[in-house]
Amino acid sequence: MEILELESFLPYRLYRLADTVSREFSRIYKERHGLTRPEWRTLSGLGERGTMTATELGEQSAMHKTKVSRAVAELERRRWLTRTPDENDRRVERLALTKTGLAAYREMVPLAKAFERELLGKLSVEERAAIARGVAALEEALERK
Q1: Beta-carbon neighbour count of residue 83 at 10 Å?
Q2: Do residues 20 and 31 lie in contact, with contact meaning Cβ atoms separated by under 8 Å?
Q3: Tens digit of pLDDT for each residue in 52-84?
Q4: Contacts of 82 (CB under 8 A, 6+ apart)
């Protein structure tokens, strides 16, 4: 019987790496604002794009709709986002950050960029370039599927 060695299986390694990096970064926004990962992804998605629907947020952040729903509810409870019914389709709500939510997002942007710089600073210039090329190549290959 053939055995799959998870430790050398690329999908498993990528998942573990992404999860580890995400957990490391989550310490910053959890400590600063008490946010969960889904709440941070929701905050940052709306901070970057302005107004989105919950469905768009889920697609952009690769989160299940229940996680998006809980994150939206919590950010709304904090008064960090608002829901507005879509003019063309009342079943859809447009989500947007409030001034308070936008202020929290703007405070986090330099911290996120510093985290990324520190993480990439552990690699050589060649390693950073190789990772950027490799990730882009995998994304492109999967988009062509």
Answers
A1: 13
A2: no
A3: 999 999 999 989 999 999 999 999 999 999 999
A4: 76, 95, 96, 98
- Residue 104's nearest CA partner among 52, 40, 49, 11 is 40
User: What are the CB-based long-range contacts (under 8 Å, 24+) for 31-36?
Assistant: 32/107, 32/108, 32/111, 33/104, 33/108, 36/71, 36/74
Question: Do residues 72 and 83 make contact, with C-beta atoms less than 8 angstroms apart?
Answer: yes
Q: Using pLDDT thresholds of 50, 70 and 90, give the confidence band for residue 126.
A: very high
Q: Which amino acid is at 53?
A: T
Q: What SS3 state is found at 63?
A: coil
Confidence at residue 144, expressed as pLDDT on a 0 to 100 scale: 83
Under DSSP, the state recorded for 91 is T
Residue type, 9: F
C-alpha separations of 29 from 106, 120, 125, 139 in Å: 12, 19, 28, 27
Helices and strands: H and E segment counts in the chain: 6, 2
Output the pLDDT for position 73: 96
Backbone angles phi, psi at 96, to 5 degrees: -150, 150
* The two structure tokens encoding residue 21: 């990096």
